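Propose amino acids for all 506 sites.
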């Protein structure tokens, strides 16, 4: 039995279309992944299905009660992951016929992500899952509703199959566009040659006598006119060539060491014998951690184990933590809602950025906040768009040490990849908490586990050049390469050390 039927739904916000839908259907046992860019209307569609948003046109048929778990809710003293877990468990316990979950894996640690996947896989009602979590979508979703360029379309199949098909479609579109551009240029060149030849024919040969020039004028005009008509036809064909829109591609973003405040000292972060509590709960006991310049360290551990509290301790300069005097911190944290609602997106970025305007726009575009967002008020952004803006204001700041607490939560897939690319090319130092396993694998040069009230580095090398030395050496080499007064002997020495570190690490 079809429990959910949507057809030709149109949603308008402030007089502007937000999205439309093709025919979308789902029934008991379906697990529908709802995917698309931040601000495209996924949460709004969920509100329409749940009946809390009735301001739309089109057909909506919902044949059973709906329970919806929103993505952001008051935490009542719990961590973000604990709050979401509590609300998801409460919803599942009610055994609803239709369940809508909005970003349920956000903030969940690895163990609870595994539990969530298993629980949703055994859910026997109709599940609608709004998520950017690639692993969760692949494990759970049996079909997808994808919003692209303002239209929701149904795709029957797994998330991996959808991604493969989309990549192939994008590649085909790019090839078709490039072929059309090449043909267009050929036709334009041919038209230009025809026009130039028409001009020469009309002028005649310089060696012609006045009588010959006069007698041949009519014939020359006829031939020139024919060539110009041919040129016009070729130009018209060239204009008709491009029927495929140019596929969107994001330019890569590469910062260099001189974009950031200079770093001095062997360690940027030095934690020694740190003991932390939250209330009466012991989190860390005499824990130690050192981070060298240029490292990208992932901090992992169960929900509530103290990852965010550790970042807070670093920011507050806790007695047992030491930051290098040259450290300039950029801090992104969970549930950050400090952006003023009455400022525009561009005003926020202008206040935050240490980059020039062109590169600031380039970074924004890579994360999906392009020119159409510049004059938009912060208060009018979706939750995911606000997270992007909050994160971007930190990434472009005059910081050389980024402390990022769950930066991947609520980001759409293109923004996730843009963030990974940005951090991999970032010449500063990063300590981050992220439960997105794919993201961690892409970004981290080292992983530290918060386990049994200790900070454990499972890959720490005992001899030779430590693995964590390599980012520092590369960072120092990049910095010296940009210094016209750098000692060439020092550069040669650094190259040898980098080669030794690379050999040591396989």
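Proposal:
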């Amino acid at each position: 039995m079809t429990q959910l039927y949507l057809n030709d739904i149109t949603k308008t916000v402030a007089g502007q279309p937000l999205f439309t839908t093709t025919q979308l259907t789902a029934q008991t046992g379906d697990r529908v992944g709802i995917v698309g860019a931040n601000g495209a209307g996924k949460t709004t569609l969920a509100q329409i299905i749940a009946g809390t948003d009735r301001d739309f046109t089109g057909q909506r048929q919902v044949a059973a009660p709906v329970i919806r778990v929103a993505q952001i809710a008051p935490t009542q003293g719990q961590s973000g992951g604990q709050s979401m877990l509590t609300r998801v468990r409460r919803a599942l316990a009610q055994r609803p016929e239709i369940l809508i979950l909005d970003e349920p894996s956000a903030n969940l640690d690895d163990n609870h992500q595994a539990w969530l996947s298993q629980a949703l896989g055994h859910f026997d009602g109709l599940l609608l899952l709004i998520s950017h979590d690639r692993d969760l979508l692949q494990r759970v979703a049996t079909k997808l509703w994808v919003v692209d360029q303002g239209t929701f379309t149904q795709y029957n199949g797994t998330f991996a199959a959808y991604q493969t098909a989309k990549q192939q479609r994008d590649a085909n579109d790019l090839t078709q566009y490039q072929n059309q551009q090449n043909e267009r240029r050929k036709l334009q060149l041919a038209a230009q040659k025809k026009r130039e030849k028409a001009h020469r024919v009309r002028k005649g040969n310089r060696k012609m006598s006045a009588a010959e020039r006069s007698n041949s004028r009519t014939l020359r005009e006829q031939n020139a006119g024919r060539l110009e008509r041919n040129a016009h036809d070729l130009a018209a064909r060239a204009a008709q060539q491009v029927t495929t829109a140019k596929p969107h591609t994001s330019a890569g973003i590469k910062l260099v060491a001189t974009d950031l405040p200079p770093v001095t000292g062997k360690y940027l972060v030095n934690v020694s014998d740190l003991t932390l509590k939250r209330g009466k709960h012991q989190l860390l006991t005499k824990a130690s951690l050192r981070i060298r310049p240029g490292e990208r360290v992932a901090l992992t551990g169960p929900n509530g184990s103290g990852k965010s509290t550790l970042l807070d301790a670093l920011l507050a300069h806790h007695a047992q933590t030491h930051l290098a005097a040259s450290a300039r911190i950029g801090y992104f944290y969970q549930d950050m809602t400090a952006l003023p609602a009455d400022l525009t997106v561009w005003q926020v970025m202008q206040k935050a950025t240490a980059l020039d305007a062109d590169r600031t726009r380039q970074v924004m575009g890579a994360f999906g906040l392009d020119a159409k967002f510049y004059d938009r008020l912060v208060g009018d952004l979706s939750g995911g768009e606000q997270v992007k803006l909050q994160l971007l204001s930190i990434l472009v700041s005059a910081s050389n040490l980024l402390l990022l607490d769950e930066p991947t939560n609520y980001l759409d897939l293109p923004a996730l990849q843009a963030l990974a690319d940005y951090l991999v090319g970032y010449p500063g130092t990063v300590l981050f908490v992220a439960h997105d396993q794919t993201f961690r694998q892409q970004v981290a040069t080292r992983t530290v586990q918060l386990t049994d009230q200790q900070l454990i580095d499972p890959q720490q090398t005992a001899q030779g050049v430590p693995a964590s030395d390599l980012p520092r050496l590369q960072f120092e080499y990049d910095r010296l390469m940009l210094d016209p007064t750098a000692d060439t002997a020092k550069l040669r020495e650094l190259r040898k050390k980098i080669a030794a570190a690379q050999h040591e690490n396989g």
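The radius of gyration is 29 Å. The CA atoms of residues 248 and 312 lie 39 Å apart.
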